[in-house]
């Protein structure tokens, strides 16, 4: 089941992610990935022959597969990757149709032109704190919650998620909810507005929880939603919740299995856990919607599991009735909304 079609901003999120795909192709051509993958090869073996770390190779090969440049087979132990007929035809030196140098020339010259254009219009490089993605060094979640994630959540994510949540029959509409890693708080605000018998807690890092508290106060909902500042991995997140919602937060957990156990224990028996995260998909077209945005995170060692691995982890934690549906009109890429019961 999937909720709605893509957001009108989708082509523009894609534009922002296109440099990741272009960089991946440039890496592949520079390191002769297509020459090395003439036979179906696993990521570990490819890593060896390409001089990469196994995790690096896996993330790169999966991204190239989603771009139609590799074919992926299901091997017995791990997926196998082989140069696709398209890459064979256009990106191999030995081919009569080789366009490898042509593409790299255009790539480099358009990159230079883009920089020249920015210089001509005196566009400065955003080098201040607000310009950094918060998951890179120097970035701040609280600044992002106030500005960028604030916009994303209030204008795109919260309306999309509310549309999906209100269609879930099992969603508790009274009692206590927790928005774990809730950022600026607009989803918690929307939830409290929609269901007047729900009271909530928003948990996030202390500086970010303060931003949420301001937004909740501005929305006139301080009596129904409280905020709790802390670290999910080390601090108490409360207990006896009827509903826990967690959107795009697990990527940042060093030990996602332990975070899930904590979530499980914080629910009352029978309570509902709704998670919405980008999960890696099995078909190339779906993977192509997600990987340009999430491959850099994988390369930083962040948690971006496959949908199957996520469902297994939920089950191993003790959650029951786990199921996923897709929400397509979210910022950047579709999210998989999973619903589970303690
Ligand atoms: C990508 S944002 C998602 C925010 C919000 N859930 C949304 O969907 O818009 C990730 C959030 O997780 C929070 N976060 C990351 N690591 C955390 C940790 N260890 N403890 C508490 N919150 C954390 C960040 O502060 C941030 O608000």
Automatic annotation (TrEMBL):
It comes from Gynuella sunshinyii YC6258. Transmembrane segments: none annotated. This is Methylase involved in ubiquinone/menaquinone biosynthesis. GO terms for molecular function: O-methyltransferase activity. Keywords: Methyltransferase, S-adenosyl-L-methionine, Transferase, Ubiquinone. Residues 162-320 form the O-methyltransferase C-terminal domain. Pfam families: Methyltransf_2. One of its GO terms (biological process) is methylation. SUPFAM superfamilies: S-adenosyl-L-methionine-dependent methyltransferases, Winged helix' DNA-binding domain.
């Amino acid at each position: 089941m999937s909720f709605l079609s893509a957001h009108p901003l989708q082509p523009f999120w894609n534009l922002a992610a296109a440099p990741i795909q272009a960089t991946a192709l440039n890496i592949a051509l520079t390191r002769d990935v297509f020459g090395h993958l003439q036979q179906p090869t696993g990521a570990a073996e490819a890593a060896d022959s390409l001089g990469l770390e196994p995790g690096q190779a896996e993330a790169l090969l999966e991204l190239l597969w989603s771009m139609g440049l590799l074919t992926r087979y299901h091997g017995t132990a791990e997926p196998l990757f082989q140069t696709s007929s398209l890459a064979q035809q256009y990106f191999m030196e030995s081919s009569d149709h080789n366009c490898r140098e042509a593409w790299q020339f255009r790539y480099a010259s358009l990159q230079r032109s883009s920089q020249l254009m920015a210089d001509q219009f005196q566009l400065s490089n955003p080098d201040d704190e607000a310009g950094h993605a918060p998951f890179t060094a120097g970035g701040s979640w609280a600044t992002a919650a106030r500005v960028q994630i604030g916009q994303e959540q209030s204008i795109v994510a919260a309306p999309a998620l509310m549309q999906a949540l209100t269609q879930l029959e099992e969603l508790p509409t009274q009692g206590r909810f927790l928005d774990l890693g809730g950022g600026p708080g607009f989803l918690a605000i929307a939830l409290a507005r929609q269901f007047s018998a729900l009271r909530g807690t928003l948990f996030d890092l202390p500086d970010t929880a303060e931003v949420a508290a301001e937004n909740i106060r501005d929305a006139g909902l301080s009596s129904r939603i409280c905020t709790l500042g802390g670290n999910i991995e080390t601090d108490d997140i409360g207990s006896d919740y009827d509903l826990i919602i967690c959107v795009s937060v697990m990527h940042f957990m060093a030990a996602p299995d332990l975070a899930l156990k904590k979530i499980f224990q914080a629910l009352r028996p029978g309570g509902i856990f709704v998670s919405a995260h980008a999960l890696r998909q099995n078909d190339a077209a779906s993977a192509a919607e997600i990987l340009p945005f999430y491959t850099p995170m994988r390369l930083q060692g962040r948690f971006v599991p496959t949908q199957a691995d996520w469902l297994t982890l939920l089950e191993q934690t003790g959650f029951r009735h786990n199921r996923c549906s897709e929400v397509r009109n979210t910022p950047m890429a579709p999210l998989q909304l999973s619903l589970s019961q303690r």
